[in-house]
Amino acid sequence: MARDYYGLLGVDKGVSDTELKRAYRKLARQYHPDVNPDEAAQAKFKEISAAYEVLSDPEKRRIVDLGGDPLENGGGNGFGGGFGGFGGLGDVFEAFFGGGAASRGPVGRVRPGSDSLLRMRLDLTECATGVTKRVTVDTAVLCDRCQGRGTNGDSQPMRCDTCHGRGEVQTVQRSLLGQVMTSRPCPTCRGVGEVIPDPCHQCGGDGRVRARREISVKIPAGVGDGMRVRLAAQGEVGPGGGPAGDLYVEVHEQAHDIFARDGDDLHCHISVPMVDAALGTTVTVDAILDGATDITIPAGTQPGATIVLRGHGMPQLRTGARGDLHAHVQVVVPERLDNHDTELLRQFKAHRDRETAEVRSAHAPQSGGLFSRLRETFTGR
Questions:
Q1: Residue 268, marked binder
Q2: Which of 52, 219, 288, 321 is the Cys-Cys partner for 24 at CB 3.0 to 4.6 Å?
Q3: Is residue 203 annotated as involved in ligand binding?
Q4: In angstroms, rounded to a whole number, what is the distance separating the alpha carbons of residues 349 and 343?
Q5: What is the pTM of this model?
Q6: What mean pLDDT is predicted for residues 241-264?
Q7: Cβ contact 150:196 at 8 Å
C-alpha cells in the first residue's frame, strides 16, 4: 500500500505549493534534531522530509496522486513488477500516450536554510520589564574559508560527466509495448549538475559549517509564556551558503512566589486577621513594577472579597497599557484564644446578640473564590 504523503504533512490532496511548504516548515521546526533530540522525533523528521521531497517534485507528486509510491523499490513506486518491467506508473502512462520523461533540469546547489528554535526561561519581572540577553546558539554558518562556494582556493565546480550537467540520468527499458524512457536524479552530482573536484578542506564542499556563536536577544515588555520572538536570518545557513532561515526564541515564563498571571492581570492572596477585616487596615505588597504598594482593606471586608488596583498589572505587549492587580482577601480566624481574648469576644457577642448562626439554602448566593464568582457571573448560579 502506498504511503500517505499528504497525511504525513497534515495537508489535503489539492494543497498549493506555498501551503505545502508552510506545513513542512512548521513540522520541521517541531521535529528538527537540533530542536528535538528524541529518537522518535528524528524518525518523524525523516518521514516529513521525505514526504515534502516527494510532493514538492511535480513528477513524483503526479505518481502519488495516481496511487503510486515513488520511493518504493529504489525510487520506483511499487508497480514495477506487475507491469512487465515498467519503471513506475508514470512510465506506463508515458508508454500508452507517447512522449518521453520530462526533463526537470538541475536543482540549485545554493538553497535556503531552515529555521531554528531556542527556548528561554524568564521570570515574571523580566516578562514585565523586558530584557536583553546574550544567548549561545549552535547552527550552521557560512564557511569563512570558501565563503559558501564549497571549492578549495581558486578551483571551480565542473560539469558532471555522468549527467552532462542535466542533473538527471535517463534509462531506457524494453517492454511489451515498446521502449520506455525514465528519468532519475543523477547519483553522482545528486541532481545539481555540477561536481566539485577539489572541495573546501573546511566544509567539505557544503559551503557551511556548524559553529557556536553568541547573539543578543531583545525581549519586549509584556511577553507571556509560549510567545516567540523572531530574529530574521539568524537561523541555519542553507546548503551552498544559501540564505539563512530565521531564529525563533520561545519564552517560558517561570512561576512567581506571590503573583499569578492571567493575561495582563495579576492575582495574589492576602491573609487578613479577623479583627483587621472588621475594623479595616492597610497591607503593603511588593508589586512587580511599582515596588511597595499599599492595599487598603475596608472595614467590614468579607472572606473571599476581591480588591482591584487598576493599572497595577502587566503591560500589554504592543500598547504598553497595564492590566489590573486583584488582591483576594482571606480572613483568618484565630485557632487558639487565651482567657482574656475569650472574655473580650464573649462581651462582643453579647453586645451584638442580634447576630446568630443560621442555615442557608445551598442555592442561595454566597461569596466564594475567584473561580466561584466567575461561574456565578456566566451561569447565573
A1: no
A2: 52
A3: yes
A4: 10
A5: 0.61
A6: 94
A7: yes
